[in-house]
Every structure is written in structure tokens, then in C-alpha cells.
Amino acid sequence: MMIPSLLDTDLYKLTMMQAVLHQHPGAQVLYRFKCRTPGVDLVQHLDAIWAEIDRLCDLRFSDEELRFLASLRYIKPDFVDFLEQFQLRRRHVHIAPSTQVPGELDLTIDGPWLQTILFEVPVLAIISETWMRAQPGGDVQEGEHRLRTKLERLRDAAPDCTITDFGTRRRYSHDWHARLLPICRQVLGSQFVGTSNIHFARLYGMTPHGTMAHEWLQAFQQLGPRLRDSQRAAFEAWAQEYRGDLGIALSDVVGLDAFLRDFDLYFSKLFDGMRHDSGDPLAWGDRVIAHLESQRIDPQGKTLVFSDGLDIEAVLRIHAHFRGRCKVGFGIGTNLTNDVGPRPLQLVLKMVRCQGQPVAKVSDTPGKGMSDDPDFVAYLRKVFGLPME
Predict the structure, then answer these.
(1) Is-contact 35 42, C-beta < 8 A?
(2) What is the pLDDT at residue 232?
(3) Alpha-carbon torsion 301, 252, 112, 90, what sign?
(4) What is the pLDDT of residues 151-183, one digit of tens each?
(5) Distances from the Cα of 259 to the Cαs of 136, 284, 339, in angstroms?
(6) Following DSSP, what letter does each residue of 300-334 receive, concatenated?
(7) In 3-state terms, what secondary structure has residue 105?
(8) What CATH class is the domain 158-210+241-337?
(9) How far is CA 26 from CA 65, 123, 223, 230, 355, in A?
(10) Rounded to two decimals, what is the model's pTM?
(11) Distance (Å, rounded) from C-alpha 116 to C-alpha 354?
């Protein structure tokens, strides 16, 4: 079974889900899938993907899993009670061959945000593993050798640099994910600070990591008081929910310029740091540090988290650039969990509508934005003062 547990997902899906339960339990959303890797025929694997989704929809949270969640100080008792009865429903998932591009999937998930939010990560992991199983050249022994080599490189070159596993959604397989995490801990020791995957965090006694994802801020484009204030409304709602916990703000939903305009002295003091997920990481960090300094905030008291397509060499370069200037953290995804031979797929499943209206991510990296309404994207750019494409 590719997904053995509803905890086999990223922590931020559960933390966002708790906030949705408390603040917007009636919100309706639509997610849309995209494979950014060209020339991939996923339609031939459609039956296998459906079979795994059916298994996913049979899962329930176990008593042991609920007790683990309850042990996390930011998870509240009423949310644990809600999860005790929770089950994903197949009726919210729609998959068919694309009528536009041969081999592509037209995959959407729609329904109540509270009932659909947990689909994203396991569905992507299912598609990734289904594809990988059919590819020649996969060799976990060679993958382990490469893994150890890159970890030893990090350990020897920067013993003060820490990393986290962020690789659930595009992993080679569940079994490989289970195998590599103890290796990371063995080779790196305290330099390996945990995983975004709650299932493995529970099994291996690791710290689960995560705060918010793009969809939290995107949803507020239709849930907030007005579009221009949506980003501030999302950060304020998050702060009210977690009261100082989970204090890393995501910066690239409407671009860095708009983020820095909204992230004023109040939010800069309130949050522990910011996460980079698109654009040049060195330029991003320099601008964030300058922004903090302009508000007379010592950057050395804040954490900059980098998570955009990292490999070990990128981690070392970024770490060296910011050493002594601020605290840094690194979330490594595909390069950690899917480097065993075949080319990994670039898969995303993004929210594109909330309350029946369009929402969008406008990325600092060309090609990473996603929306199904170009007119809304143009309006969003105008409202936030972004250049038109």
C-alpha cells in the first residue's frame, strides 16, 4: 500500500486543517492537478492510481495516531475529536484523460475545504510512486550510496548546517522514504532535525516540521475582507489560531514585493521567520534581511527557511551566504526522497478556486504560478501592484 496512514502527509496540511475547522468550516474549494514534466503519459496508469485512491479513502486515524497528534502542543482537543471521525471521500476526486494534451490527466478535487484538504499530498505521492514503479533503472542500493555521499558532503563541509525532509509528495516510494530517514539521522546526527511527514515523525521519534502552505493565503483572496488585504488577513488569522506557535510565514503567494509591503513591523515581530519557495534565494534573503533591519529588528533573531528545489550544493551555497547574519533552515524535497535513477516528476495539486471564485499564486519563479482564470491573475497583479506578464 502506497499510503499506509492518513498521517502519511505533511504537517502543514493538518495545521491548516485545524485552522479551517475553527475559522472557515463551510468554505468550498477546488484543487487542480498539473504535471510540469513534459511528455509524461499518466493516463496509462489511471487504473492503478484509482486503486490506490480507493485504498486511501478506506483509511481512518488510529487511536495511537490521535494520541500522537494530541501530544503536539499546538494541536487542540476538539480537532483531535474531529479527526477521530474523519475519512476522505472518493466522490470529491475526479480524474479523466485530458482532452487537450494526450497522456495528461484532468484531475480535480472539489468540495468542502475541511473534507478535501488532506487529499493533496497522498494523491501526489500515489501518482509519483505509480509512475516510478513503471520506470526502468530504479536502484535503491545505488540510491542509498548517492544519499550517503551527499549527506557526508553536508556533514563535512558545514557541520553547523541543519536540514529537514520535505519530500513526501514527490518521493520514489513509501518504502524508500521509510528507509532513507534513519540513514539521514545516522549520518547527520543533530544536523538532521526532522521531517514534514507526520507518519514517519511518529514512527521514528522525529520532530514534525511545517506551518502553512500557499493554499492558506490563496483562500483568503476570497475569504478575506478585500483582495488587497487578503495576505494580511491570512497572517492575522494564522497568528490568532496558533498564538506564537508555527511562526514561519510563506512569502511567495503574490511575490516578494507585495509580501514585504504587507509584512510590516507588527508581523515582523510576531512571526519567527519567513519561508522562501521561489525566485533567487540569495536575493530573497538579502531583501528580507534588509526589510527587517529597516524596521530595527535584528535578523539574527529570525529564521529564514529555504525549500525551493534544493540539493546539497544549493544548501551549502545559501548557508555560507547567510552564515552569521540570521538563522537558516533548509527543507529538501525531491533531491532527498527521489534520487534512485529515473527522472522524478514535477507534480503539483493547487487550489484554484475558493467559494466558487478564482484564487491564484503569482510566483517569483516563472512557471510556478497556477490559476485557471487569466483575468483574475491580471486583476490580482493590478491590485498588488505587480508587473503584468
Answers:
(1) yes
(2) 98
(3) negative
(4) 999 999 999 999 999 999 999 999 999 999 999
(5) 43, 11, 33
(6) GGSEEEE-SS--HHHHHHHHHHHTTTSEEEEEE-H
(7) strand
(8) alpha beta
(9) 26, 23, 11, 18, 9
(10) 0.97
(11) 12
